[in-house]
Design a protein that fits this description.
The protein has 3 helices and 2 strands. The chain has helices at residues 6-15, 22-39, 74-78; strands at 84-85, 88-89.
Length: 96
Amino acid sequence: MSRLTLDQVKHVAHLARLAITEDEAVKFQQQLDKVITYAEQLNELDTSNVEPTSHVLDMKNVFREDIAKKGLPVEDVVRNAPDHADGQIRVPAIIE
């Protein structure tokens, strides 16, 4: 007996904007049941002494300090731009 009904599989397919046939729904029902069975093995583990975590590695803050510094000179920035004027890069208009 599957944990998922065919209606549930079809509903999930609809939410994902997938058009599936009746045969595909049956196939996915069986496959999803196997995935759930595999994931339920985690319930057999004793996790009472395991602290909750959001990441498997002990990482605190891996970002560098946000320090303001002088950027590139405008001449260097616009040097390779195909079209520029008055220190600004010109692009085609997309809004009338």
